[in-house]
Automatic annotation (TrEMBL):
This is Oxidoreductase. InterPro entries: Nitroreductase, Nitroreductase-like, Nitroreductase/BluB. Pfam families: Nitroreductase. GO terms for molecular function: oxidoreductase activity. SUPFAM superfamilies: FMN-dependent nitroreductase-like. The keyword Oxidoreductase applies. Residues 39-206 form the Nitroreductase domain. CDD domains: iodotyrosine_dehalogenase. The keyword Electron transport does not apply. Keywords: Flavoprotein, FMN, Oxidoreductase.
């Protein structure tokens, strides 16, 4: 059934009866998933090798199953493969990032980034074979220009991006959440409508053969989970 925005009309309840997974299987799956997810790393050095495009489309389809405020699904994913467009994005991002790293971020922020060693040079934007540029739809825009506010847009799009990163990783692809700031140039380069605001640029591909990642340590479960 084709989705159309609802406005006050109640949904019709339909049965939801997924077969209950036996506990033993649940435990085994959870443990395996935990280990696989722990193997995910943010990658900044990409191989230019192409990726199976349908894997990326399927990962976006997974992301688009995310829950959202009032089921408004306030997201658009732009898959950029065209090298010329990726070069334009890189040029514009590096211009903004240069200003940011030259001081716009402020000393405290720059100090927080120093351990990662990031700077204004962003080769991943042109090395990775694909970019997924995620836009949030701040409001719904009808064809006649009518507007309807969207709710919990940051939360909804954040959840969708988390699901996207999980799907990409579990399908064997590496990714980076890149947030050039300010991101307005992305709307211009990609010709997006006024109701959409760029949220993140996600290069997708395989790690370069000489890829390195920082030896960072994750917080333990004890540190992040409080059980009451
Ligand atoms: N957007 C900049 C700066 C940056 C900010 C944070 I917070 C990071 O975790 C990493 C980078 C950049 O992409 O370099």
């Amino acid at each position: 059934m084709q989705w159309t925005p609802t406005h006050g009309e109640p949904y019709r309840p339909v049965p939801y009866r997924p077969a209950r997974m036996p506990a033993a299987e649940s435990l085994a799956r959870a443990a395996e998933l935990r280990e696989r997810m722990d193997g995910r790393r943010t990658v900044r050095q990409f191989s230019p090798d192409p990726v199976p495009e349908q894997v990326v489309r399927d990962a976006v389809a997974c992301a688009a199953t995310a829950p959202s405020g009032a089921h408004q699904q306030p997201w658009t994913f732009i898959l950029v493969k065209d090298p010329a467009v990726r070069r334009r994005i890189r040029r514009a991002a590096e211009e903004e990032e240069r200003i940011s790293y030259d001081g716009r971020l402020g000393e405290e922020w720059l100090a927080a980034l120093r351990p990662l060693g990031t700077d204004e040079v962003k080769p991943h934007l042109t090395d990775a074979p694909a970019l997924i540029v995620v836009f949030q739809q701040r409001y719904w825009l009808g064809e006649g220009g009518e507007r309807r506010k969207h709710y919990y847009v940051d939360e909804s799009v954040g959840i969708a991006v988390g699901m996207l990163l999980s799907a990409l990783h579990l399908s064997g692809l590496a990714a980076l959440v890149h947030t050039p700031s300010p991101m307005r140039f992305l709307s211009e380069v990609l010709g997006r409508p006024v109701n959409e605001k760029a949220f993140a640029v996600i290069p997708v591909g395989y790690p370069a053969p000489d890829c390195e990642v920082p030896d960072l340590v994750r917080k333990s479960l004890d540190q992040v989970l409080v059980e009451i």
